[in-house]
TrEMBL record:
Active site location: H115
Originating organism: Betta splendens (Siamese fighting fish)
Cited PANTHER family: NUCLEOSIDE DIPHOSPHATE KINASE
Required co-factors: Mg(2+)
Family named by the database record: Belongs to the NDK family.
Nucleoside diphosphate kinase-like domain: residues covered: 1-138
Residues holding ATP: K9, F57, R85, T91, R102, N112
Xref: InterPro entries: NDK-like_dom (IPR034907), NDK-like_dom_sf (IPR036850), Nucleoside_diP_kinase (IPR001564)
One GO CC annotation: ruffle
PROSITE patterns, A to Z: NDPK_LIKE
Gene Ontology BP terms: CTP biosynthetic process; GTP biosynthetic process; UTP biosynthetic process
Record protein name field: Nucleoside diphosphate kinase B
UniProt keyword terms in alphabetical order: ATP-binding, Cell cycle, Cell projection, Cytoplasm, Kinase, Magnesium, Metal-binding, Nucleotide-binding, Nucleus, Phosphoprotein, Transferase
């Protein structure tokens, strides 16, 4: 099974959307293996978004992401990075399809409520940045045989 990193951004937290987002992942059949609610420092966000450091919006993004609490999670499942990106929708909510998280729940690209890893390698890097090994919970989902062949 693959793992991916997902974070509800400060705008999603402030709007009370953590539960809705968790529900969508759980209904899909994915397994939550780690989660924490925190306010990240700007330095932490600079590390998280290091791959965007040359973009004109980098400084503002890091400042915004450290401006309020985020809900950081690690989810596990088959093809989870790809499927999570589909669930999130496009970075720009105006280009997101109805049924996606961004397509249903937000309007503005600068307040697109959620982050999800875009590749397996970035998922590993982000998970390692946000979580320690002892913060993961290992358990079996009782409905797993009804999800996977």
């Amino acid at each position: 099974m693959e793992r991916t990193f997902v974070a509800v951004k400060p705008d999603g937290v402030q709007r009370g959307l953590c539960g809705e987002i968790i529900k969508r992942f759980e209904h899909r059949g994915f397994k939550l293996v780690a989660a924490k609610f925190l306010q990240a420092s700007e330095e932490h966000m600079k590390k998280h978004y290091l791959d965007l450091k040359d973009m004109p919006f980098y400084a503002g993004l890091c400042k915004y992401m450290s401006s309020g609490p985020v809900f950081a999670m690690v989810w596990e499942g088959q093809d989870i990075v790809k499927l999570t990106r589909m669930m999130l929708g496009e970075t720009n909510p105006a280009e997101s399809k109805p049924g996606s998280i961004r397509g249903d729940l937000c309007i503005n690209i600068g307040r697109n409520i959620i982050h999800g890893s875009d590749t397996l390698q970035n998922a590993k890097t982000e998970i390692d940045l946000w979580f320690k090994a002892e913060e993961f919970v290992n358990y079996e989902q009782v409905f797993k045989p009804f999800l996977y062949e």
